[in-house]
């Protein structure tokens, strides 16, 4: 079972950027995709995008296109999600999740990273 | 884009069966996955590919999917099942869609 460990809570001012990391345990990090999902306080899950296995192609939800960048470093088994031009409504817990296969489920999740955007 | 509709809340007495609906246009043609999220915790996969239970998930959890509705059923409900439940599908094999979530209250 892959375990995903995310970086700690962050506080930013509006207009700034934040980069969240997600380190995977175990082998075969290169062989699965990583998705990013966020959850605003008291709200539901919102998919942000994914970065594919092997080549590292990305697909971002339309809402975040132009503002989000997902990358990964296979040498350290770490995925990253950077969100720019932060607004107060970006305050949320951000999760990474391992994607099973193509079009599959998310079978392992990180513990979540709280990002607070406030002036 | 594809839309998944869930009831905001479902209430059930302990020992009874809870059914949580997830509606979508011809959702029966897609694979539906279900997640349980307890307060302050990350989501946990409880049903994959409509009706398959991951290792470690009790047999009390089951799923079905047909037509315009997918359903998560929890039999012999326990206090520990109180949580938010989300359905999830893929749209056009590229985009991920979550339902709005259903809060299960155990009376």
What does this structure look like?
The complex is a heterodimer of chains A (119) and B (107). With 119 residues, chain A is an all-beta fold. Chain A is built from no helices and 11 strands. Chain A has strands at residues 4-6, 10-12, 18-24, 33-39, 46-51, 58-60, 68-73, 78-83, 92-99, 106-109, 113-117. In chain A, a hairpin with a 6-residue loop joins strand 9 and strand 10. Chain B has 107 residues and is mostly beta strands. Chain B has no helices and 9 strands. Chain B has strands at 9-12, 18-23, 33-37, 44-47, 61-66, 69-74, 83-91, 95-98, 102-106. In chain B, the strands form 2 sheets. In chain B, strands 1, 3, 4, 7, 8 and 9 form a 6-stranded mixed beta sheet that branches. A 3-stranded antiparallel beta sheet of chain B has the order 2-6-5, with no helix packed on it. The radius of gyration of chain B is 13 Å and the shape is globular. Chain B starts with 8 loop residues before the first strand and ends with a strand. The model of chain B has no long low-confidence stretch (mean pLDDT 97). Chain A binds chain B through residues 35, 37, 44-47, 50, 59, 61-62, 95, 97, 100, 102-107, 109-112, and chain B through 1, 31, 33, 35, 37, 42-45, 48-49, 54, 84, 86, 88, 90, 93-101.
Spell out the helices and strands of chain A N to C.
EEEEEEEEEEE
Quaternary structure annotation? heterodimer
Number of helices of chain B: 0
Which structural category do the helix and sheet elements of chain A fall into? Answer: mainly beta
Please indicate the percent range of residues of chain A in DSSP E strands (runs of 2 or more).
over 45%
State which percent range the strand residues of chain B make up: over 45%
The main sheet of chain B comes to: 6 strands, mixed
State the helicity of chain B in percent bands. Answer: under 10%
Helix share bin of chain A: under 10%
Helix-strand category of chain B: mainly beta
Number of strands of chain B: 9
What low-confidence regions of chain A span 5 or more consecutive residues with pLDDT below 50?
none
Distance N terminus to C terminus of chain B? 36 Å
Quick one: how many beta strands of chain A? 11
Span between termini of chain A: 40 Å
What is the alpha-carbon Rg of chain A in Å? 13 Å
Silhouette of chain A: globular
Total of helices of chain A: 0
On the 0 to 100 scale, the average pLDDT of chain B is: 97
**Averaged pLDDT of chain A:** 95
